[in-house]
Amino acid sequence: MRAIAYFKQNDIHFSSDLPEPRIGADDEVLIDVSWCGVCGTDLHEYLDGPIFMPKDGETNPLSGKQLPQPLGHEFSGVVAEVGPKVTKVKVGDHVVVEASLGCLDTHRWPKTRLSCTQDKPCGACRKGFTNCCEHNGFTGLGVVGGAFAEKVVAGERHCIKVSPDLPLDVAALVEPLSVSWHALRSAGFQKGMTACILGAGPIGLTTIAALKGAGAKKIVVSELAQIRRDFAQSIGAEVFDPTAHGTNAAEVLKKMSGDDDGFDFAFDCSGVKATFDMGLAFTTFHGVCVNVAIWGHKPVDYYPMLVTCKEKILTGSIGYTTLDFESVVNALQNGDIPLDDCKKLISGKYTLEDGWEKGFMQLMHHKDKCIKILLTPNNHGELKSAK
Ligand SMILES: NC(=O)c1ccc[n+]([C@@H]2O[C@H](COP(=O)([O-])OP(=O)(O)OC[C@H]3O[C@@H](n4cnc5c(N)ncnc54)[C@H](O)[C@@H]3O)[C@@H](O)[C@H]2O)c1
Ligand SMILES: [Zn+2]
Ligand SMILES: [Zn+2]
Predict the structure, then answer these.
(1) Phi-psi region of 86 (alpha: psi -120 to 50; beta: other; left: phi over 0)
(2) Which of 97, 138, 271, 323 has the most CB atoms less than 10 A away?
(3) Boundaries of each Alcohol dehydrogenase-like C-terminal domain copy (predicted)?
(4) Of 270, 277, 298, 365, which is best to mutate to test ligand 1, by the most ligand atoms within 8 angstroms of its C-beta?
(5) Is 56 part of any domain?
(6) Which atom of ligand 1 is nearest to the CA of 41?
(7) pLDDT tens digits, residue range 362-380?
(8) Considering the chain, what percentage of its residues have pLDDT values greater than 90?
(9) Which of 133, 186, 294, when mutated, tests ligand 1's pocket best, judged by the most ligand atoms within 8 Å of its CB?
(10) Do 135 and 235 fall into the same domain?
(11) Ligand 1 in contact with 100 (CB < 6 A)?
(12) The predicted structure's pLDDT at residue 386
């Protein structure tokens, strides 16, 4: 099978002779991949990894699987084959896949080293917070092979059917959109509220789309890079340059909420001390600061009375569940999240063969110019070159 796989540290490359995945458990689905997006996490595996991927010679504790493994966790495809117990999807259906894996999936892998099982999962899985699973892992990030490949196998419970009318390239964005959707949902964002996003990378931008879908009254984005501010503006956000107003920045931003007291929500999609502090400064009393960013191990200090005196809520959001995927698919299909905005996020579409040079390398060296690059194994649909 043709795929872009993680072979070992600093070695990701295209190969045409990787083993094709097959259905093992009765509730598995074989998917013919249409499009798969290159994510910052994939680049991170190359530059600083292995992070999620098994180390050379080791196996993944959830699945017992080794390297090499195709990368790719943001994807859409067409069902090619289903296991005997699958009822949720059928051959020919268009699907997206909720990529997180945990206790509830261990029955699929005889070589699992976890003591948790589908019948006796960890506390988080038992309570439905599968995104907080103690053993959380991902399709395409070390547990099982991902979708920079011709075929991928997923458990039925992770497959979400999409309408044949939803373009399969846009459907590949459901995964990053679900990261943002989950952040809104878990933090209690409601229609008519105001929000400021800190950072307009791919996740900040999908958060604009999710906020539009959720009926935000006002969406402002604070971003350092002009090119990214322009982009955020092109999909309907008001923008703010955090360097333009010196020590007054938080006050100026606060006024942009349209309310003297500040914004109802801050979504930190940058993860630096400056954005952490800024969010706390421009949110209103009872405002919510949501940390979406992944931080390194360095702690950040802050003055707790900033939270206490205005009864603010400081919270975070990790990953997604199938409910977020279903909600995003609905929002795309009923027009709440505009398809045109999503299409603008796709900066390039290439074949798997070209994927390392035109996808991975392009994003590593021209991060500011590209948002989302999609790769296809089978040339489903038209390709598009980055400008
Ligand atoms: N919580 C989750 O489940 C989840 C999932 C995926 C990604 N993430 C994380 O979300 C974050 C965003 O991801 P991304 O791919 O968009 O990253 P990115 O690095 O492309 O974007 C970050 C943006 O923040 C901007 N920025 C930096 N300092 C700033 C400042 N002081 N003020 C305003 N903007 C500033 C940068 O210019 C950049 O455009 C990362 O930390 C990523 O690891 C979290
Ligand atoms: Zn990702
Ligand atoms: Zn669990």
Answers:
(1) beta
(2) 97
(3) 202-332
(4) 270
(5) yes
(6) 43
(7) 999 988 788 999 999 986 6
(8) 93
(9) 294
(10) no
(11) no
(12) 60
Q: Which residues contact 375 (CB under 8 A, 6 or more apart)?
A: 4, 35, 36, 37, 38, 72, 148, 349, 350, 351, 352, 354, 355, 359
Give the number of domains in the chain.
Answer: 2
Is 279's C-beta closer than 6 angstroms to any atom of ligand 1?
no
Three-state secondary structure string covering 324-368: HHHHHHHHHHCCCCCHHHHHHHEEEEEEHHHHHHHHHHHHHHCCC
pLDDT tens for residues 49-100? 899 999 989 999 999 999 999 999 999 999 999 999 999 999 999 999 999 9
Q: What is the CATH number of the domain that holds 138?
A: 3.90.180.10
Question: What is the 266 CA–ligand 1 centroid distance (Å)?
Answer: 13
**What is the overall mean pLDDT for the chain?**
95
Domain interval for residue 54: 3-162+338-376
- 269 CB less than 6 Å from ligand 1? yes
Tell which atom from ligand 1 comes closest to the C-alpha of 271. Answer: 41
Position 381 in a domain: no
